[in-house]
Amino acid sequence: MQKRGRPYPGDRKSSLRLAAVAWPFVAIIVIQVVLATFSLQMVTTLRAYVAGESHWSKAQHNAIYFLNRYIDTGQSIFLRRYELAFDVPMGDRDARLALEQNPPDRQAAFDGFLRGRNSPTDIGGLIWLFEHFSWFSYMREAVSHWRAAEPLLLQLETLKDEAVAAPESGLLERRAWKARLDSINNLVTPLTERFSTALGNGARFVQAALLAANFLIATLFVILTLWRLNSFVRQRRAVEGELAWRAMHDQLTKLPPRAAFEKVLGESLADGSAVALM
Predict the structure, then answer these.
(1) Mutual orientation of helices 9-73 and 137-165 as an angle, nearest 10°?
(2) Each residue of 27-41: pLDDT tens digit?
(3) Which residue of 102, 139, 190, 220 has the lowest C-beta tally within 10 Å?
(4) Do 224 and 28 contact (CB within 8 A), yes or no?
């Protein structure tokens, strides 16, 4: 007698057959979950970079505005506001330089992005995307615009130092400084717009690519389901046919038994068929 609690061999075989049937479906579901998680992370982080650029761009405009006011008035409050605004893009710059080190300095990158007024909950994703997907064409293009804007922005510090060193500057010198401010702003602004455009295009590309991948996987799931159903139907028909044949034939002689003969005879007589016995 089979001991209680120990599985029967038939149970083990049934479990193996069930696993063989179920594993492709489980694999597809797991792949879809992974793709959905990856797509959400990718798109969310790209959008976080776009949001960070808005802080960067706003701070850049504020820095130029307050430096302009300082040149006009010489009031230290405008110089302080310029420095606070200027620290935002400089924080992002420090974060990028920390991530470009070998190995990357993630803590310094975190601190830099925090100075750049990025949300602390987004910074992990910003670091992850830069570390692992800086080769991505849209990301690479955005970073190139980012790098190109920084030397122009650093010119503000040179201009600020000149203005601080010459508080009694004349009208012509102040006009020259203000003209340089306008020139810097006109050169930097298009680069920030291209940065956002590149990342926006990247987010749309990722969404479209992952949507297509999910559609293909869903199609595969449907095809696999139909194939399995068709296989089950064929197996069931084969079993039913086998059972029907065994019901009408003797297992030793392979001939129809007397009961089957009498059944056929009765059916033939009932529908009026002529049966001749010799």
Answers:
(1) 30
(2) 777 877 787 788 778
(3) 102
(4) yes
Three-class DSSP labels, 98-138? HHCCCCCCHHHHHHHHHHCCCCHHHHHHHHHHHHHHCCCHH
The H-assigned helical ranges of 74-105 are 76-99
Closest by alpha carbon to 97, among 28, 162, 154, 21? Answer: 154
Q: How far apart are CA 87 and CA 161, in angstroms?
A: 15
Contact 69, 78 (CB under 8 A): yes
- Per-residue pLDDT reduced to its tens digit, 190-227: 998 899 899 888 888 887 887 888 788 778 877 877 77
Q: d(Cα 188, Cα 64) in Å, to the nearest integer?
A: 11
Question: Which of 87, 85, 89 lies closest to 66 in space, CA to CA?
Answer: 85
Amino acid at 162: E
Reading phi first (left if > 0) and then psi (alpha if -120 to 50, else beta), residue 117 is in left
Q: Computed from CA positions of residues 265, 269, 272, 274, in that sequence, does the dihedral angle turn out positive or negative?
A: positive
- The Cα–Cα gap between 200 and 106 comes to 25
pTM, whole model, 2 decimals? 0.70
Q: 49: closest CA among 97, 95, 111?
A: 95
Q: Two tokens at 94?
A: 């420090």
The dihedral over CA atoms of 208, 209, 214, 219, expressed in degrees to the nearest 10, equals 100
Where do the H-state alpha helices sit in the chain?
9-73, 76-99, 106-115, 120-133, 137-165, 171-247, 258-270
